[in-house]
Structure formats: C-alpha cells, structure tokens
UniProtKB/TrEMBL annotation, chain A:
<comment type="similarity">
    <text>Belongs to the acyl-CoA dehydrogenase family.</text>
</comment>
<keyword id="KW-0274">FAD</keyword>
<dbReference type="Pfam" id="PF02770">
    <property type="entry name" value="Acyl-CoA_dh_M"/>
</dbReference>
<dbReference type="GO" id="GO:0050660">
    <property type="term" value="F:flavin adenine dinucleotide binding"/>
</dbReference>
<dbReference type="InterPro" id="IPR046373">
    <property type="entry name" value="Acyl-CoA_Oxase/DH_mid-dom_sf"/>
</dbReference>
<dbReference type="InterPro" id="IPR037069">
    <property type="entry name" value="AcylCoA_DH/ox_N_sf"/>
</dbReference>
<dbReference type="InterPro" id="IPR006089">
    <property type="entry name" value="Acyl-CoA_DH_CS"/>
</dbReference>
<protein>
    <submittedName>
        <fullName>Acyl-CoA dehydrogenase</fullName>
    </submittedName>
</protein>
<feature type="domain" description="Acyl-CoA dehydrogenase/oxidase C-terminal">
    <location>
        <begin position="231"/>
        <end position="364"/>
    </location>
</feature>
Automatic annotation (TrEMBL), chain B:
<feature type="binding site">
    <location>
        <position position="6"/>
    </location>
    <ligand>
        <name>AMP</name>
    </ligand>
</feature>
<feature type="binding site">
    <location>
        <begin position="36"/>
        <end position="39"/>
    </location>
    <ligand>
        <name>AMP</name>
    </ligand>
</feature>
<dbReference type="InterPro" id="IPR014729">
    <property type="entry name" value="Rossmann-like_a/b/a_fold"/>
</dbReference>
<comment type="similarity">
    <text>Belongs to the ETF beta-subunit/FixA family.</text>
</comment>
<comment type="subunit">
    <text>Heterodimer of an alpha and a beta subunit.</text>
</comment>
<dbReference type="InterPro" id="IPR012255">
    <property type="entry name" value="ETF_b"/>
</dbReference>
<comment type="function">
    <text>The electron transfer flavoprotein serves as a specific electron acceptor for other dehydrogenases. It transfers the electrons to the main respiratory chain via ETF-ubiquinone oxidoreductase (ETF dehydrogenase).</text>
</comment>
<dbReference type="GO" id="GO:0046395">
    <property type="term" value="P:carboxylic acid catabolic process"/>
</dbReference>
<feature type="binding site">
    <location>
        <begin position="116"/>
        <end position="127"/>
    </location>
    <ligand>
        <name>AMP</name>
    </ligand>
</feature>
C-alpha cells in the first residue's frame, strides 16, 4: 500500500509469513465454534513474538514499543486477530515496572517463553466500569495471605491465561484520603485457585473474544503476590495504560489497512453495468476517505510511540491515537462492507467478521467518550464533566 | 562440512508483476522484494543439515544490489552463520553469478553448495549447473531429498514421470526443488541475532570476475489477456465444438 510504514520491516515481513498459515477459513471455523485460536497463539509464542517487550535479561527480545506495535499491526493487517493474545505482550509491564526482583525472576522468564500466560487483567466490574476507583472487589490481609471477594466482568481471555493481574480494594474508600488510594495490585495464579474461590464464566458476545465474568469467594492470594506497595495499585495499573492504548491503536491501523485493501481489491474486480464498481465515485470516495483517515491516525500512533520511547508521558497522544485509529478502522470497515454490498455480509468474505471485531475498539479498552473527557479536562483545561 | 548457500533477491512471489511501459523489463520500483522461494528452500535444507550435525557452518551468499543484504539477513535469521554480499548494481546473468560463486567457493572452500533450482524472476534455471561446470564438481539438480554418507550424497531428484535417486561425490552442487522441505518462519529472537551476524561486502572486480552482460533483452511484454469463454447449452454442443471448432477430439 502506498505510504506504507517502513519501520521494523523485517519484523513485519516475518509476521506476515507466519500469518499466511492462518487464512480466513481458520478464523471462520473458530468463529463458528467460538473457539480460541490455540494454534495461532502457539505459533506466535514459539516465534518469540509475544515476548518482544520482555527485557533480554528475562528471556525476551527487549524491543521498544514500536516493534510490538509493528507486530500487532501486521497481525491485524493480514486478517488475523491478535486480540486473542495481545495482552500477553503488555500486561507483564506492571510486574516489570513495579514488581520485586523476586517476582520478576519468578514470572518474566516463563512469560517470555510462553510457559506462563499472563493475559487476564481483572479491573472492570459490573457496577464500576470506567469509574475504576469505585470497584467493590476487596482483598483482606490475613497472616501471609489475602482473601479476595468480589467480581470482575469483561475479563478477556480468563479461560486462556494462567495468571491474572488483579486490582482490588485493600482499604475501604471512606478510609483513604484520595479515592485512588487503597487499591492494590495482585498476581493471581488462577491455576491454583480455580474451583477454590475462583469461578470463570464465559460471556457470549458478538465476536469471538473469550470475554468472561470472574467471581472471587474467599480466594486466597499469597501476600508475596502483592505487586509493589499495598494501596498504590491504581497507579501501577495506570502506568501500563499508555502502552496498551498505543498497541491497540496499532491494531486498529492494521485492521484499517486490511479493510482498505479488501475494499479496493473488490471495487476493481466487481463489474456492474459493464464497468468495475470502483470507477464510481460513490464507491471510491468512501474508500479514499477511509485511507486518508487511516494515514492521519497512523501519524498520531507514530507520534505517541515517539514520545513513549523518548521516555516522555504520551497520555494525550496515546488516547488520541487510540480514538483516531479506532475511528479510522471503523470507517474503513464501513466502507468495505458497503463496497461489497450483499457479499460483505457473507461469512466467506471475512468482512463481516473483521467488522464485528474492529467495532470493539470504539468501546474497549476505553470508550471514546472517556478519551474526549480526558482531552477536554487535562489538555484543554475545561471543567471535569463527570 | 561447510555449506555455501546462494540466495537471490527477487520480486515477491505474491506480487502482481507489471511490465515497464517501454518494454525493457518489469517494474521493480516500490515493489515488495523477497528471497526467491527456491533459495529459501535451499537455506532451510542447509539449516536442517546443521541441526542434524552434518553441516558445521552455513555461509549465505547473494549477488546483487546493496538491498540484497536484507535477503542475506533473512537467511541469517533462518539459521545461516554469516553472509557475503557481492555487490553489483548491474543486472547479473547466470554465467556471471556462476563465475562470482566460483570465486567465492575458491575462497571459502565449502564441501557443498546449495542453490535454488531457479529464481522466479527470470526463470533461467542455469546457475547451479554452470557453477558445477566451472568448478568441475558433481551436480545434483532438482533435489527433493538429500542424505549424506561418507564423502558422498544420496540425492533424490524430481524428473519427468517420477523420482530418480543418484549418488554424487563431495564436493558437490545441489539445487533445491519445491518439495525438498518447507522453509521455517524466522522467529523474533533469531531475527534479532541475525542483526549481529557478520556480512562481508565485496564487488565482482574484487573477486576478479568480469560480470559484464552477454545477453541483451530484446523485449518484455505482458502475457496475452485471457479471452472470454463461451457457455454451451448441452453436452452435444460441447462435443460438437470440441470436434469441429477446437479440433481437439
């Protein structure tokens, strides 16, 4: 595609080759059974792709965030779905930045090799979505362990993860000076507590994403699994949000490129009234518009990556990148399904599947309204709206 | 056993090739380039020989422009140990490449040279055979299986109508056919390691080779566009058309 990003070319090429082994039929068959792409995730794990961000000292490749972005963008661009495992790349960042050396030694090498899967992130609850500090799950210390009670929802991949990073309240909200205090982050070894205080229940959704509800009933977590200091967990979780947003934005750029290529290809070859439909401005303009939106969003992703890698705080850029890229991918999805007409709704064209999948990023991991609120309040200095 | 593998940078096999408007060749500007698929198979075989303890060192050689370094890096990421780029911006013909490879073989003294049976750009399919003649080494072309015994290789070749198994004495030239193996994907750690592996760069002149072209391309054209077919109404009509129009039955 014209104007293609050239950074990490060899990484993109190698990922594209791997993805070629997982064509549309593979994903369609999984979709039908709502099954997890185990073979795809294994191939990515074996190739070391999910360990891109783990430092070399702990067995990973120690690459900058832009390399991880290139990997995830390419996966989406090839029509695959990295959502099944993207969290394995970045959830470990919280342990890396705030965990003890003992925790890093205990977990990171196995996360890098794929022997341990850390891709469940227990934050959101039924009664507190974006209002994270209102969460009701509690962890009460008893001797050398914590007892966790409560519930999480929209915990993606919980059934396909060994560990979960969990945010729970350790001091009641009315006993802390700031509501962001009193929350703590834990590493939960779900293999040890499943059926013993931990229940996982998958939720059927419009796409094959393995979203789950997770219930805790006196679930025991060793005190040694507390990350950093008790009561400071909210900050630890926030510190990983920029990386997550930038990576998801990169995935959306990959989706947008897939839709634009698919739409362009079809518009060139589908002949109606004696000429290719792509000759009609009614068909080509929405695709061209989607391309322009994608390129603009891609520049914001690059800017966010540049700031992140320079060690600056890219809070606004990461949020804007995610919003613009999600909008661009959905605009491209819409142009693509419209270009295909009735065929866009037929499963064998993969357009409807990707359409459903990319729609998610208007909502997750943060909804567009919250990004706008953030920009209004923190960048423009307008009064807080909520 | 030291193994030399030749790798060529070509237009990616999945790219639709376009002929230049002046008919002098095909468009390569802004076109995705990759390692020739048959070269990939040759590299894979070399890596498997090393993993089996048969090969001790793998040297990947490419002849072409500066960017051929990327092709060598791909080979290094697959498992080759080091690379040699014989840099030339001129189009190199099979004989020139064979002469360059001979000079590299004289320097490196490998026991086995693995090549693809042909490159998918020009489809010459000559380099391996020419190299064998220049070196006076045995050759086994279109290999679909390679086994090493004492001082010789047993190679299964794909020929018209079946398979032929031959024995060749080492040192030897082997060219890889499609079914020799399925090349691996480079893993991320190996791509990272490949960046640190050495690549020597030299020119044909450094090797004392005259790489001047001996062929001239007269014209390059697009293949004729496929003509529309016809729908027949019945088997009888089909048979009639095959008999009287196509005259094939």
């Amino acid at each position: 595609m014209a104007g293609e990003r050239q950074d990490h070319r060899e990484i993109r090429d190698a990922v594209a080759k791997l993805c070629a082994g997982f064509p549309g039929e593979y994903w369609r068959a999984l979709d039908e059974r709502r099954a997890y792409p185990t073979e795809f995730v294994e191939a990515l794990t074996e190739g070391g792709w999910l360990a891109a961000l783990v430092p070399e000292d702990y067995g990973g490749a120690g690459l900058p965030l832009s390399a991880a972005a290139a990997i995830l963008e390419e996966i989406q661009r090839q029509g695959c779905n990295g959502a099944a495992c993207h969290a394995q790349m970045y959830v470990m960042g919280t342990i890396l930045r705030h965990g003890s050396e003992a925790q890093k030694q205990a977990y990171l090498p196995d996360i890098a090799s794929g022997a341990l899967r850390l891709q469940a992130f227990g934050v959101t609850e039924p009664s507190s979505g974006t209002d994270t500090t209102a969460l009701r799950t509690t962890a009460r210390r008893e001797g050398d362990r914590y007892l966790v009670n409560g519930q999480k929802i929209w915990t993606s991949r919980a059934e396909h993860s060994d560990l979960m990073l969990l945010l729970a309240r350790t001091t009641p909200r009315d006993q802390v000076a700031k509501k962001t205090d009193g929350l703590s982050t834990f590493i939960v070894d779900m293999r040890k507590v499943l059926g013993k205080g931990l229940t996982i229940r998958p939720i059927r959704t419009m796409m094959n994403h393995n979203s789950c509800e997770v219930f805790f009933e006196d679930m025991e977590v060793p005190a040694a699994n507390l990350v950093g200091e008790e009561g400071k967990g909210f900050r630890y979780i926030l510190s990983g949000m920029n990386a997550e947003r930038i990576l998801i934005a990169a995935e959306c750029i990959g989706d947008a490129k897939w839709f634009i290529e698919k739409a362009t290809g079809y518009a060139k070859e589908r002949v109606v009234f004696g000429r290719p439909i792509g000759q009609n401005q009614g068909i080509q303009f929405p695709i061209a518009k989607a391309y322009a939106s994608m390129r603009a969003a891609e520049l914001m992703v690059q800017e966010a990556l540049r700031l992140y890698e320079a060690g600056e705080n890219p809070g606004a850029e990461a949020n804007m990148a995610k919003m613009l890229a999600a909008d661009a991918s959905f605009e491209a999805a819409n142009a693509c399904i419209q270009t295909h007409g009735g065929f866009g709704f037929a499963e064998e064209y993969d357009v409807e599947r990707k359409f459903r999948e990319t729609r998610l990023y208007q909502v997750a991991p943060i909804s567009t309204n919250l990004i706008l609120s953030y920009l209004a309040e923190h960048v423009l200095g307008l009064p807080r709206s909520y | 056993m030291k193994v030399l593998v030749a790798v060529k940078r070509v237009i990616d096999a999945y790219v639709k090739v376009r002929v230049k408007s002046d008919g002098s060749g095909v468009e390569t500007q802004n076109v995705k380039m990759s390692m020739n698929p048959f070269c990939e198979i040759a590299v894979e075989e070399a890596v498997r020989l090393k993993e089996a303890g048969v090969a001790t060192e793998i040297v990947a050689v490419s002849c072409g422009p500066q960017q051929s370094q990327e092709t060598i890096r791909t080979a290094l990421a697959m498992g080759a140990d080091r690379g040699i780029l014989v840099q030339s911006d001129e189009a190199l013909e099979p004989l020139a490449i064979a002469k360059i490879l001979k000079a590299v073989v004289d320097k490196e003294q490998p026991e086995l040279v693995l090549l693809g049976k042909q490159a998918v750009d020009n489809d010459f399919g000559q380099t391996g055979q020419m190299l064998s003649a220049l070196l006076g080494w045995s050759q086994a072309t279109y290999a679909s299986k390679i086994q090493k015994a004492d001082g010789e290789l047993t190679v299964t070749r794909e020929i018209d109508g079946g398979l032929e198994t031959i024995k060749v004495k080492l040192p030897a030239i082997v060219t890889a056919d499609l079914r020799l193996n399925e090349p691996r994907y480079a893993s991320l750690p190996n791509i990272m390691k490949a960046k640190k592996k050495p690549i020597d760069t030299m020119s044909p002149a450094d090797l004392g080779v005259d790489a001047a072209p001996r062929l001239s391309v007269v014209k390059v054209t697009e293949p004729p566009a496929r003509q529309a077919g016809v729908k027949v109404g019945s088997v009888a009509e089909l048979v009639d058309k095959l008999k009287n129009e196509a005259k094939v039955i």
